[in-house]
């Protein structure tokens, strides 16, 4: 009889230990370990029959050069911003894991997608694990859903897979994966349940060609709750997050497209509405002609956007001046301030400096350095930038302006928005750039512009 070893698995991150621990050393969660007994493997297989591998022979090998090329069939979700994040639409047989905080709009967005597909003649299966069918009907009435969506409250993974095999829907939505149960695997939401339920539904999706979306709970640090192996099983992982008045859908993994894509939505009474021009939305309330305001071309993930960098300088009443940074990397801002003091002889020692990325976004893009430098300079000297200026570039310790990732896309986004004067690093597509922060200041305020 083979020995059965018991292990304990963290239900937050999937970390395993031979004994139960009060606090997970990986994710720092308290009292998160659950007992898990692995399946027993027969002694004959362990001992090994003929040869050292239990008498099992290797399978067939296939040369890469003989493998055919096939484009995965895609179906539009009916929402352009969601299609962008997914890489072009829903993939037949693809499994997407969607995470996000409670009440952020995951169920709302997916019900809109289900409505769009059902109205186009495709069948949709909606597994309601957390809400009653009456609650879903109320949300559907509020959103104006008219499609005929098939609903079920049965959250047993075997039954969901059987429904997918029987009806072969174009889309299956499971809300949420933490409510799915597998027979004989412990309590719902446990590590084994979530892992094995995800595996079973993924296998069913591949066999039936059903595009499947699994809604996942998130932990207090914003990651999908459950074992990390769950994110390895699925094809795509996306997160929905709140930024100011907007919702951002961000892809962190995509086997059928480019990871890092970003979609912008706005929550309204009729549901999540895609924002086609995020740059215009984030700059809609920008004050014109005010010192300390600079339009910066940045890239969040793979998407170029125009954002407003704001700076304010005031005399400090304290012995040590304060540095307050919101939405940017505070250490990079400190470096930029040091460069301004050293290279431009700008006196900042007796000033409180406040730097803010308007709109609520948090971006760690080095290409915002030059915008921070010009915003602080503008705030200190009291001179506003011209209204047609957009800025990007990394600032080095010598005061030099360096090129950044995606410079061409940044410049194109600024041009589309109507910014005719770009203060950018040199050597970009034949454009005249600035080599240092000093040159940037001269380029912005040349000719006595204020």
Question: What report would you give on this structure?
Answer:
By secondary structure, the protein is of the alpha/beta class. It folds into three domains: 40 residues; 203 residues, Rossmann fold; 169 residues, Ribosomal Protein S5, domain 2 (2-Layer Sandwich). It is 27% helix and 24% strand. The protein has a nine-stranded mixed sheet. It has a six-stranded mixed sheet with strand order 17-18-16-15-19-22. The protein has a three-stranded antiparallel sheet with strand order 2-1-3, with no helix packed on it. Helix 9 links the parallel strand 17 and strand 18. The N and C termini lie far apart (85 Å).
Topology:
Layout: E1 7-10, E2 16-17, E3 33-36, H1 43-47, E4 74-75, H2 80-86, E5 90-91, E6 95-100, H3 106-119, E7 124-128, H4 133-143, E8 150-152, H5 157-167, E9 171-175, H6 191-208, E10 211-216, H7 229-233, E11 236-243, E12 246-254, E13 262-268, E14 271-274, H8 278-282, E15 293-300, E16 303-315, E17 323-326, H9 330-343, E18 351-357, H10 369-381, E19 389-391, E20 394-395, E21 401-402, H11 407-416, E22 421-423, H12 437-444
Parallel strand pairs: 6-10, 6-11, 7-8, 7-9, 9-10, 15-19, 17-18, 19-22
Antiparallel strand pairs: 1-2, 1-3, 4-5, 11-12, 12-13, 13-14, 15-16, 16-18, 20-21
Helix pairs in contact: 5-6, 9-10
Question: Which radius of gyration do the C-alpha atoms yield?
Answer: 27 Å
So how many helices? 12
Q: Kindly identify the CATH topology of the largest domain.
A: Rossmann fold
Structural class by SSE content = alpha/beta
What is the CA–CA distance across the termini?
Answer: 85 Å
Kindly give the count of domains: 3
* The CATH homologous superfamily of the largest domain: P-loop containing nucleotide triphosphate hydrolases
Using the coordinates above, name the CATH class of the largest domain.
Alpha Beta
The global form is elongated
């Amino acid at each position: 009889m083979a020995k059965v070893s018991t292990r304990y698995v963290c239900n937050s991150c999937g970390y395993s230990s031979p004994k139960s621990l009060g606090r997970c050393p990986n994710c720092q969660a308290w009292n998160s370990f659950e007992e898990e007994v692995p399946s027993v493997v027969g002694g004959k297989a362990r001992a090994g029959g003929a040869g050292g591998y239990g008498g099992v022979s290797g399978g067939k090998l296939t040369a890469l050069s003989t493998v055919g090329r096939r484009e995965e069939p895609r179906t539009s979700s009916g929402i352009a911003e969601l299609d962008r994040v997914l890489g072009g639409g829903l993939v037949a047989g693809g499994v997407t894991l969607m995470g996000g905080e409670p009440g952020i709009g995951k169920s709302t967005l997916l019900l809109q997608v289900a409505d769009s597909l059902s109205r186009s003649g495709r069948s949709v299966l909606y597994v309601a694990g957390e809400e009653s069918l009456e609650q879903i009907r109320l949300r559907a009435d509020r959103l104006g859903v008219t499609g005929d969506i098939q609903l079920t409250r049965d959250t047993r993974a075997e039954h969901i897979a059987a429904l997918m095999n029987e009806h072969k829907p174009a889309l299956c939505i499971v809300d949420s994966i933490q409510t799915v149960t597998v027979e004989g695997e412990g309590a719902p939401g446990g590590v084994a349940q979530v892992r094995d339920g995800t595996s079973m539904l993924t296998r069913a999706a591949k066999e039936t060609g059903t595009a499947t979306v699994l809604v996942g709970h998130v932990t207090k640090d914003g990651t999908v709750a459950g074992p990390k192996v769950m994110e390895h099983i699925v094809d795509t992982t996306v997160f929905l997050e709140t930024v100011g008045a907007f919702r951002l859908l961000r892809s962190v993994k995509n086997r059928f497209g480019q990871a890092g894509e970003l979609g912008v939505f706005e929550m309204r009474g009729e549901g999540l509405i895609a924002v086609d021009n995020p740059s215009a939305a984030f700059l809609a309330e920008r004050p014109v002609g005010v010192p300390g305001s600079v339009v910066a071309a940045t890239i969040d993930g793979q998407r170029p956007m125009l954002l407003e960098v704001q700076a304010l300088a005031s005399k400090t009443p304290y012995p040590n001046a304060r540095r307050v940074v919101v939405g940017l990397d505070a250490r990079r801002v400190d470096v930029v301030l040091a460069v301004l003091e050293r290279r431009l002889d700008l006196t900042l020692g007796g000033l409180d400096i406040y730097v803010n990325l308007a709109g609520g976004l948090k971006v760690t893009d080095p290409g915002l350095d030059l915008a921070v430098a010009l915003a602080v300079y503008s705030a200190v000297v009291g001179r506003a930038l011209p209204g047609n200026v957009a800025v990007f570039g990394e600032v080095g310790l010598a005061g030099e302006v360096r090129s950044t990732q995606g410079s061409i896309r940044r410049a194109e986004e600024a041009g589309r928005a109507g910014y005719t004067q770009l203060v950018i690093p040199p050597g970009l597509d034949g454009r005249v750039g600035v080599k240092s922060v000093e040159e940037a200041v001269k380029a912005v305020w040349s000719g006595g512009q204020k």
